[in-house]
Amino acid sequence: QVQLVESGGGSVRTGGSLRLSCENSGTTSSFTGFGWFRQVPGKEREWVAATSTYGAPAYADFVKGRFTMSMSNTKNAVYLQMNNLRPDDTAVYFCRADQGQSPNLVIHWGQGTQVTVSS
């Protein structure tokens, strides 16, 4: 059983920081990768960062140098440290956890957490 619980969203001013958390509150499961995505109303969900459980994170160009993704030692939780936030970072942020690999990939999503950045 996988249940991803996100936390850490909130409202900050331009230049501020937030740290998002995504933890599996279900029974421990083996994940092959994690990702962070974001979505604003009327737009498609967009990829922010991702990592496999054995590799280094990769980032979308618009967050490189500002956001850092990390993973717990248990590989059951991921975090997104967001620095130097801008108003266009405002969105609902979702975490994603993958089990297995294509063609047997199973994807799990968190409920989302709101991040609002004001100027």
Describe the structure.
The protein has 119 residues and is mainly β. The protein has strands at residues 4-7, 10-13, 18-24, 33-39, 46-52, 58-59, 67-71, 77-82, 91-99, 106-109, 113-118. A hairpin with a 6-residue loop joins strand 4 and strand 5.
Task: Give a brief rundown of this model.
With 119 residues, this protein is mainly β. It has strands at residues 4-7, 10-13, 18-24, 33-39, 46-52, 58-59, 67-71, 77-82, 91-99, 106-109, 113-118.
How are the elements arranged and paired?
Layout: E1 4-7, E2 10-13, E3 18-24, E4 33-39, E5 46-52, E6 58-59, E7 67-71, E8 77-82, E9 91-99, E10 106-109, E11 113-118
Parallel strand pairs: 2-11
Antiparallel strand pairs: 1-3, 3-8, 4-5, 4-9, 5-6, 7-8, 9-10, 9-11
Helical fraction: under 10%
Radius of gyration from CA coordinates: 14 Å
Write down how many β-strands occur, each being a DSSP E stretch of 2 or more residues. 11
- Kindly report the average pLDDT value: 95
N-to-C span = 41 Å
Largest sheet: 7 strands, mixed
Low-confidence stretches: none
Listing every helix as H and every strand as E from the N terminus to the C terminus, the arrangement reads EEEEEEEEEEE
Q: How many helices in DSSP terms?
A: 0
From the helix content, strand content and strand pairing, which structural class follows? mainly beta
Shape: globular
Proportion of beta-strand residues: over 45%
